[in-house]
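dude i think i finally got it to work??
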Amino acid sequence: MSRSNPVSLPSYDELPLAARGGRSAWGLFGPDDQIGMLNTVTPEVTAAAAKLVSTGEVFPMDLPLDYFDPPLFGRTAAEITVKIGVGERGLDEVYNNFNPQSSSQWDSLAHVAYDQEAFFNGATLDEVVTGKRATIGYWAQHGLATRGVLLDLERSAAAEGRGYDPGSAYTFSVEDVERARVASGVDFREGDVIILRTGFTSWYAGLEPAERERISTRADLRACGLEHSEEMVRYLWNTHAAAFASDAPSLEVWPMEPGEEHFPFGMLHRFLLGQFGQGIGELWALDGLAERCVELNRYEFFLTSAPLNYVGGIGSTANALAIL
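look at this
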């Protein structure tokens, strides 16, 4: 893996051991830290990222709220009621059953614990559900404006004759991710948002309604994603990225392996969110951006995102833009 800036943070193997396996970044930014690796997005990092803007083209990376119909993982679909005001000259609306993670989304650091009540930086379940620790509002109050890097796993695999089914439990190895990075010509920098395109959302668009219904449950969904291994955990931490995002449902391969026999590496969420403080974006709209990156032969851009400013929130719509 190549980096273009001096490493100022510890490598994975320099981190202290976590309680039940793997390594931990708890306390890296102090005992009261609530935003994890978002701390690496400093004013200097944002200013440098803004200089990447050349064409001024803007690519929103949020799919429609109802793109996944029904929503995956059995999540609820939003019911939107338009209210007509006095004199029929003003409108507003009410969202019912709105799950901000039913389409393009962020997982907050409070979404998944490392183990039992061991949420990021030692937060307890009670501290999370009462909004005192690690929830999405802390990210919202910081804001996110940094360099985005696109790694096109689908195009990289196709170029090597390695086609795959995005709707299967196809697993990307560290070597697969590295090949896509080399193909993009980018080096990682501290504070990046690294975005992985797998082709899942475009695959989903071609499904018949009955198949969409079938795979909407956790039990029947299959989706490509990153492998469950310490090698992958090590690689992801060593990028020193602020966050990762993809167009797949869980970034990592689905199904996860949550059982005790696979602990702790059967779920990457445990480490990225629960130990490292690196956010996870899922189900992002990447196809148009990827096509333009190919045309420009440029895979880095200015990325902005404004998560929902709700201190007790567990997730958020992505609200993400790539500016070329």
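The CA atoms of residues 150 and 195 lie 5 Å apart.
im so relieved honestly
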